[in-house]
Amino acid sequence: MASNRPAPEAPFVPSQRDTETFGYGTYSTDEGPWTEWNPTEESLPPVRGRHRVAKQRGGLARGGLARSSTVLGVGVIAAVGAGGMASAQTGKPPVSISMPDLPNVGSLISDDSDAAEDSTTALSTVSVAAADTEESTADAGEVLRARIMAQAEQQQDQVESKAAAEAVAEAEKAAADAAAKAEQEAEAKAAAAKKKAEEEAAQKAEAARLAELAKQFALPTSSYTVTSTFGQAGSLWSSGYHTGLDFAAPTGTLIKAVHTGTITQAGWDGSYGYKTVLTLDDGTEIWYAHQSSISVSVGQKVNTGDVIGRVGATGNVTGAHLHLEVHTDGSGSGIDPMAWLRSKGLNP
């Protein structure tokens, strides 16, 4: 640091001092006498440690010290300027004032201040780090919470989607079952209608056939009453049951040929009385028994409705009637005459 040259001393006269220079209303006796301060290299305290420049990063301690150093320098300059102004106003000769080379503002801050700054910085860093850690922990918790909530929502969506899919599948199955059932019912109705139509058609066809047969077949007598049917049990018959169909009618009622055929038997036959046998072209035999008289002979050809005899009460009987039996080829004891007549379109 360069030293200043010594300046000549200026006399001090209190009565001539401008009281308005420093803003005082009156002169104070405790001020002065003033002597000139000429800082030298020996009078300045040595600067310890390395020179540092105050960092303007904020903070109360560092900012306060930096501003204090700046104010100190400005105050010194203001004081020097005020002294020159006072000399000019009082008419005194100018006083030569020399200023030493001042160190940087940062050098006025001692190592202790630097240590305090470092300590403050360290504490601030720790606080910021703690705050950052706390904020990071809070953020991690929020992230975890958000992730859990998202997973829960996803699972809920999956459950709802599965339930909806099951409901849709169940509805589709129910609809398919209903459609299948409706189709089955429709098919059953169609089949029933078809069957009914076929049955009706068959019945009509059978009725037409029977009508044609009825023209070819005839009932064996008229003015009658059916008194005994085929298979009826009783002691009146030697076999224990009735083997034909009985038409009760007055004696002498005409007996007719049921169909075209040939007379193969005509005469007395024990318990049958007078009996006539008519053999049809297909080999079926029609037996007429208990006649009072016979009007045909063996080998005679007859047509449907021709008279072959009369009703009587000959043989094993209890009254006048026509006993009619039907024997098909190889039938033995015969078949039900009622069913056979109906199959030919006749209704006894």
TrEMBL record:
It comes from the Bacteria. Residues 168-214 form a coiled coil. Keywords: Coiled coil. Transmembrane segments: none annotated. Residues 241-331 form the M23ase beta-sheet core domain. InterPro entries: Cell_wall_metabolism_enzyme, Dup_hybrid_motif, M23ase_b-sheet_dom. Pfam families: Peptidase_M23 (PF01551). SUPFAM superfamilies: Duplicated hybrid motif (SSF51261). Residues 1-62 are annotated as: Disordered. This is M23 family metallopeptidase.
